[in-house]
Amino acid sequence: SPEDLVAFVQEGNPARLTYKDATGREYNVNRGLVDSGYLTERVYNVCYATAPVLWPSKGSDAAFGKDPVRYTRLQTPVGLGLYTYIDNDIKTEFYDWKINRRRAPLFRLPMNCPEGLIAGLSGQQLITKRTAGGTSQQWKKLPNDHYGDCCKLALVGWQILKETFATGPGIEKPATGTP
User: How far apart are the C-alpha atoms of 59 and 148, rounded to whole Å?
Assistant: First the structure.
């Protein structure tokens, strides 16, 4: 949650973020996306304090778009960027293509993953909704699907990395606090 993230950053040195798993093993956090849909200003401030490690992100309700993931620079805090993504497109790629149709590269779970993760990933449903122009396919929103949201943001992260690698070396480097 954003509250946990704020506490996490305040406990240590924002320049060196670490995470401990359930076994106590510590991992360095090198890059991350934080959902800014809840407690937006606090998330922005934490991301600004940890730049260029953490970036805010937000899902869009748009039905479709040119780019599945988009980067824009915010007015405040100055220099901070926001990644927005088309939630429906990312969910379709993740739940339909990666999980249901098993499109490569495969999405694999460890043997000891929490039951809540499996329940959240299996409970996603594509439903038909009536619109002014007829009908549309949308993913049903599930309450408290924290694990699914984390997996979805991981896919958004891979989309960003894919674009970064596709541009190749020799491109202009963005200013501090940007990707």
Answer: 13
